[in-house]
Structures are given as structure tokens and as C-alpha cells.
């Protein structure tokens, strides 16, 4: 089951989106549980509650863009699809790693195109968990929460969205093996992995991440990384 939140202050537009979603679910054999809220405060919970969020940008009180920024402070991976009548907001949607952008009025063809991308990504990333032994127990990481991983001597430093870097004992190879194939992680050098969902620019020997961080792409891996990234974009988008 996919838990979907619609944040929309106009009931008729929320109903139109719900109907399109239900039509998509019926055609694609999906089990959806859809919740509607008129205010962006529905996202101010501080915890991951939904699998997918449709968010109107023009909302009373807290705007949709501000609500998305708040959501990203505690949840870096749940897909956000913006809905708005103002197309100029499309560029800003990338600031919060939005998965899609639909210009109103929402129609089924627009929704279907967007949902195909998002559902494919959700299915590909489902159950991707990394488990590490730590003192007195285990630590579980969701691959979707990882921005990039750096090797520092015998430790791995995981850079996570909205959280302090986490240091764990391990190797780059172990992370790749545990994450499995066809996932978002790609090795860009002997001591660094990146999550391709957060790559914004590859230029020369630099990779720019969504938060502006620049990472070094080794010459020996450049061809492979470019090929892997292009293939991943084709599957995800």
C-alpha cells in the first residue's frame, strides 16, 4: 500500500486529483490510501508518515515551498510532487528535490506521466536497507537517506539529509554489496559513493550535489559513472 497525502486548499481541485489517482491505481493495480489536508501544517509532524506527497505551492499561511523545505529537514527521501497554476515555480522545485511538477489543471495524462516516474523509483528503492553492527546492537540506514559516503581510513562517513554525518566501520565494497544492484549508489572514486538522486551536475572532474557540495570524480571511473548515471536517469525518469 502507498500512503498518499494531498495538500490542497480547494476541495474541487483536491477531488479532481483524488479521482485521477484512483483511476491510475485501478489501471496499474496499485493499492493507495489517500489523505487530504487543506493546510501545509499537515507536513509539520517531524516524522515520515506518507509515501508520496502532492503539494500545492499556493496555500494560505505556510506556502507549499516553505512546507516542503520544513519536510526536507526531517525527511530527505519521500517524493514530493508540486501542483500549481504558476509554472515559474518549476525551477524552485529542485531546491527541495521535488520528484515532479504538475501545472494545474491536473489532468490524467499529466498525472500518469508523473506517477510512472515516481512509482518506478519507489519500487526500485523499496526495502533497500543497510544494516551495520554497532556497539550493543545494530544500525539500519535507508539507502534513500544517503547523499554520499566517504571512506576515512577504516571508517565510512555517511552524509545524510537533515542530519549530522554518521561514522561507521566498513568498506565501500560492503556498502555496494549490501545495497544490491540497480540502486541509486555509484562509486565515483576509490573512497567515495554518491546517491545519483542527489547529483545535479557532472562537469569535468567535479560532481555537484543538490546541497552544493562538490565531489571529485576520478578519471579512471568517469566513463563508467557517466554511463551508469545516464542509464539510471532513463529508468527513473
CATH topology annotation of the largest domain: Rossmann fold
Assign a percent range to the helix content: 25-40%
The parts where pLDDT drops under 50 for at least 5 residues are none
State the CATH superfamily name of the largest domain: Response regulator
Rg, nearest Å: 19 Å
Q: Please tell me the total number of domains.
A: 2
Q: How many strand elements? A: 15
Q: How would you describe the overall organization of this protein?
A:
With 237 residues, the chain is of the alpha/beta class. It folds into 2 domains: 2-125, Response regulator (Rossmann fold), CATH 3.40.50.2300; 129-236, LytTr DNA-binding domain (OB fold (Dihydrolipoamide Acetyltransferase, E2P), Beta Barrel). The protein contains 5 helices and 15 strands. It has helices at residues 11-27, 64-72, 108-125, 172-179, 222-236; strands at 2-7, 32-37, 52-56, 80-84, 100-103, 129-134, 137-142, 146-152, 155-160, 166-169, 185-189, 192-195, 199-203, 206-209, 214-216. A 5-stranded parallel beta sheet has the order 2-1-3-4-5, covered by helices on one side. Helix 1 crosses helix 3. The longest helix has 18 residues, at 108-125.
Amino acid at each position: 500500500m502507498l500512503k498518499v497525502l494531498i495538500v490542497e486548499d480547494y476541495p474541487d481541485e483536491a477531488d479532481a486529483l483524488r479521482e485521477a489517482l484512483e483511476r491510475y491505481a485501478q489501471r496499474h493495480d496499485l493499492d493507495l490510501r489517500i489523505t487530504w489536508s487543506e493546510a501545509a501544517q499537515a507536513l509539520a509532524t517531524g516524522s515520515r508518515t506518507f509515501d508520496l506527497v502532492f503539494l500545492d505551492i499556493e496555500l494560505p499561511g505556510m506556502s507549499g515551498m516553505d512546507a516542503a523545505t520544513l519536510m526536507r529537514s526531517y525527511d530527505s527521501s519521500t517524493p514530493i510532487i508540486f501542483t500549481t497554476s504558476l509554472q515559474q515555480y518549476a525551477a524552485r522545485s529542485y531546491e527541495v528535490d521535488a520528484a515532479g511538477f504538475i501545472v494545474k489543471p491536473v489532468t490524467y495524462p499529466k498525472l500518469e506521466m508523473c506517477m510512472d516516474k515516481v512509482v518506478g523509483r519507489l519500487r526500485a528503492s523499496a526495502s533497500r536497507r543497510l544494516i551495520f553492527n554497532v556497539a550493543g546492537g545494530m544500525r539500519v540506514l535507508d539507502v534513500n537517506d544517503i547523499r554520499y559516503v566517504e571512506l576515512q581510513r577504516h571508517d565510512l562517513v555517511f552524509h545524510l539529509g537533515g542530519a549530522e554525518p554518521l561514522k561507521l566501520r566498513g568498506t565501500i565494497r560492503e556498502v555496494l554489496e549490501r545495497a544490491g544492484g540497480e540502486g541509486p549508489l555509484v562509486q565515483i572514486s576509490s573512497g567515495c559513493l554518491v546517491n545519483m538522486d542527489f547529483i545535479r551536475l557532472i562537469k569535468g572532474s567535479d560532481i555537484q550535489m543538490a546541497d552544493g557540495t562538490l565531489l571529485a570524480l576520478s578519471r579512471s571511473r568517469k566513463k563508467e559513472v557517466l554511463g551508469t548515471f545516464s542509464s539510471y536517469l532513463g529508468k527513473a525518469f
